[in-house]
Amino acid sequence: MSVLSQLKSRFQQAVWAEFALEINPQVTVAKDPKFGDYQCNDAMGLGKKLGMKPRDVAQKLSIG
After folding, report:
1. Nearest alpha-carbon partner for 49 in 23, 31, 26, 29
2. Which of 30, 32, 53, 57 minimizes the number of CB atoms within 10 Å of its CB?
3. DSSP letters spanning the chain
């Protein structure tokens, strides 16, 4: 299993565990290396859907 696949799986599990939502995470290789190797911008859409600030969604999904 690739790193990208593992990240998608972990993110999907985190969203389910925290919000009981099924999503297809949009994890991609980061466009700018100063932000890390991979990125996922789903917190923006989830925030809107859940009525939360994207930052709060991201903090709840922290899978460090």
Report:
1. 23
2. 32
3. --HHHHHHHHHHHHHHHHH-------EEE-SSGGG-SEEE-HHHHHHHHHTS-HHHHHHHT---
Each domain of the chain, given as residue ranges in start order, spans 3-60
Given a contact cutoff of 8 angstroms between Cβ atoms, the answer to whether 39 and 31 are in contact is yes
Neighbours of 46 (CB within 10 A): 21
pLDDT confidence of residue 63: 59
For 24-38, write each residue's pLDDT tens digit: 999 999 999 998 999
Radius of gyration (C-alpha) of the chain in whole angstroms: 12
